[in-house]
Every structure is written in structure tokens, then in C-alpha cells.
């Protein structure tokens, strides 16, 4: 796969709009499209700039606001055919919203996390333990099969978030009442 094909693949798999990349590069969408699809002038500098934009985009992407729904069909046969890296990406989206937040929670750099997601490195015991402690179902991560316990954990975490929000609301009401007297 050459650099142009790699960029096209990354744009497609991450669902990134060409207009966003073109805007960050300070060029027209048509120009960017020509460079990626047809031009022989696609050099390392353009490749590096686009790659950085894509990497920055995926680390800062916050896919969810508020409660994260848990689809019952997350672990269907279709999803079991994907690799460990893509499963880590799914886990990051579902639990943390961004890859950067997952990397922060794992106390590793976003670049190290990207190595696992891209398939350049396989996670070892230390990384798997960190993912496990953060609530990732290791059976699903390694083999694509969900254990019933991971659904129970998700439901408990959702209930915990709901109860914490209720407690925060009660604390705010108490604080307002105390300030008013």
C-alpha cells in the first residue's frame, strides 16, 4: 500500500471528511481530493501533514456526550472478525469517548496506544492488565467473545454513574439551601 492509498484508507475507516483536512491544510477540498486520488505530486511532507491531522483527530474525537448507550448486539459475529486494535478502539469509544482519554487512564502515551490500535504491536500482559482494570473484557478483546460478566459490569457502571449524578444534584440543593440561610 503506497502513502496515498494509506491516507485514503485512514480517511475512510475513521470517517473523516476531506473538508476538515483541507481546512486544516489551508487548501480547497478539490485540491486535496486531487492530491490524494490522482496526483503524482504526493510527497512525504503532504503525507506527514495529513497523517498528523488524522492522528490528532482520532485522539481528540469525543463521540459521546452524557450517557453512553450499550447496544446488545455489540459482540455479534460481524464484530468478532475485527482485530485486537479495532476492539481497543471500540472499548475506548464506549467507555472513555476518546483514545486520548483511554491512554491517559492507562498511563501510557497516545503514540504507544496507537501502536496497539494500528496492529504494529500486540498488547502484552502489562497492557492487558491495565485494560482489564479499566473494565475491558479480555475474553472479548482477544477472541471476540463477550462474557456475560462484562454486560453486568457495564450495567453496574451505568447505575453507579446515575447514582453519582443524583448525589451531585442533592449536594447542590443542600449547598444552595445552606447559602440561602
From TrEMBL:
Pfam assignment, any one: HTH_3
PROSITE patterns (UniProt xref): HTH_CROC1
SMART domains: HTH_XRE
Protein name stated in the entry: Helix-turn-helix transcriptional regulator
Domain named HTH cro/C1-type: residues: 92-141
GO molecular function terms noted in the UniProt entry: DNA binding
InterPro entries to which the protein is assigned, alphabetical: Cro/C1-type_HTH, Lambda_DNA-bd_dom_sf
